[in-house]
């Protein structure tokens, strides 16, 4: 085996690279972004004991993960959006660490630090993909034993396998945040608790989640046509706030303060998913993992599956007689698993926006 190319320095690609290096397999990760801190890495993740944490054990990173993880973040609260009454408050039992929370940026940083210097080539966008070959923006080409598409929702590598692109789900997220919430927004911090707070009715929801360092990340979620924000300038915080307050009119003032007391602005995140099932004909020299393979609604499984995909692929590459046999074995296990999970997530997205306040799909 000569070399493996991973396109994309997300969680799944980095986990794959980590396990390959544990087995002394040559791997290079190509990332189009200029550096590790080129953009914010998103909110908090719950890593499950039977998927994401299994992957971290394989990568020999479970101990440093536990040093960063927040078991108290498993708390789940729900409030009535019209009265502000708390209707559910599930606090994790002492010693419960099956789904602890960790900031995505912290997890990615831990994976990056575990790799040999120079493993990730920053600022290397891909323009063409063929089995076992990458062409870069500067026109240079390079051959590999295997090209792994770990390049997320809008994967270029996926185009060489299936040509399938994500579709708008009919649901949109608008993200906002509260900084140093315990000091600056104590009432909202108390309302949120240590984990996730949800309130919802009539196809609309507000979700608030604790991150590290006292930050609370919030999401206004609702059904909307794809062009719902046409004419709305997201740089105009006052205009976006006014639109959301109108959309959520009638909700309790304690809930609406998440929309009015934010620090910074709003970020529009329309939710796209891959069709179910999404699969491909085995092609020597190419494969996919994570969102590139199975982009699903953000209901707590995507990062877990990406980590599991990456470590399972790397383990197969380290143990199978050939690269192609390894990829076949990996795809044989990964594709059915991802299809079944994607089916469940499709239903979970509707549960997220149902009127059942005890349905905490997020």
UniProtKB/TrEMBL annotation:
NADPH binds at residue 39. One of its GO terms (cellular component) is cytoplasm. One of its GO terms (biological process) is response to antibiotic. It catalyses: a tetracycline + NADPH + O2 + H(+) = an 11a-hydroxytetracycline + NADP(+) + H2O. PANTHER family: FAD DEPENDENT OXIDOREDUCTASE DOMAIN-CONTAINING PROTEIN (PTHR46972:SF1), MONOOXYGENASE ASQM-RELATED (PTHR46972). Residues 286-320 form the FAD-binding domain. The keyword Cytoplasm applies. This is Flavin-dependent monooxygenase. Consists of an N-terminal FAD-binding domain with a Rossman fold and a C-terminal substrate-binding domain. It comes from Amycolatopsis pretoriensis. Pfam families: FAD_binding_3, NAD_binding_8. GO terms for molecular function: FAD binding; monooxygenase activity. It comes from the Bacteria. FAD binds at residues 46, 104, 291. Its cofactor is FAD. Gene3D superfamilies: FAD/NAD(P)-binding domain. Its EC number is 1.14.13.-. An FAD-requiring monooxygenase active on some tetracycline antibiotic derivatives, which leads to their inactivation. Hydroxylates carbon 11a of tetracycline and some analogs. Keywords: Cytoplasm, FAD, Flavoprotein, Monooxygenase, NADP, Nucleotide-binding, Oxidoreductase. Belongs to the aromatic-ring hydroxylase family. TetX subfamily. It is found in: Cytoplasm. Monomer.
């Amino acid at each position: 085996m000569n070399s493996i190319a991973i396109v994309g320095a997300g969680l799944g690609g980095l986990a794959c690279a980590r396990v390959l290096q544990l087995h002394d397999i040559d791997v290079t990760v190509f990332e189009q972004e200029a550096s590790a801190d080129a953009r914010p890495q998103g909110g908090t993740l719950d890593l499950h004991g039977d998927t994401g944490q299994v992957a971290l054990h394989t990568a020999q990173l479970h101990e440093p993960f536990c040093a960063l993880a927040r078991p108290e973040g498993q708390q789940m609260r729900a409030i009535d959006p019209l009265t502000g009454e708390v209707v559910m408050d599930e606090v994790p039992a002492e010693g419960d660490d099956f789904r602890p929370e960790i900031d995505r940026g912290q997890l990615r940083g831990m994976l990056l630090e575990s790799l040999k210097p120079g493993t990730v080539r920053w600022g290397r966008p891909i323009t063409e993909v063929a089995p076992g070959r990458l062409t870069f923006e500067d026109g240079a080409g390079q051959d590999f034993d295997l090209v792994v598409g770990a390049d997320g929702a809008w994967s270029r590598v996926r185009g060489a396998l299936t040509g399938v692109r994500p579709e708008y789900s009919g649901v949109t997220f608008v993200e906002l945040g509260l900084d140093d919430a315990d000091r600056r927004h104590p009432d909202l911090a108390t309302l949120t608790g240590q984990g996730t707070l949800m309130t919802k009715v009539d196809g609309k929801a507000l979700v608030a989640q604790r991150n590290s360092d006292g930050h609370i990340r919030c999401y206004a979620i609702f059904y909307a046509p794809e062009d719902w924000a046409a004419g709305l300038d997201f740089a105009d915080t006052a205009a976006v706030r006014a639109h959301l307050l109108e959309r959520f009119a009638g909700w309790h003032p304690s809930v609406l303060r998440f929309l009015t007391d934010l620090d910074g602005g709003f970020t529009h995140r329309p939710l796209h998913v891959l069709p179910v099932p999404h699969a491909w004909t085995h092609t020597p020299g190419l494969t996919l993992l994570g969102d590139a393979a199975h982009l699903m609604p953000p209901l707590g499984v995507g990062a877990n599956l990406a980590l599991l995909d990456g470590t399972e692929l790397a383990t197969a590459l380290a143990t199978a007689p050939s690269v192609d046999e390894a990829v076949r074995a990996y795809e044989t296990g990964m594709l059915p698993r991802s299809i079944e999970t994607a089916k469940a997530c499709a239903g979970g997205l509707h549960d997220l926006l149902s009127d059942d306040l005890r349905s905490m799909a997020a």
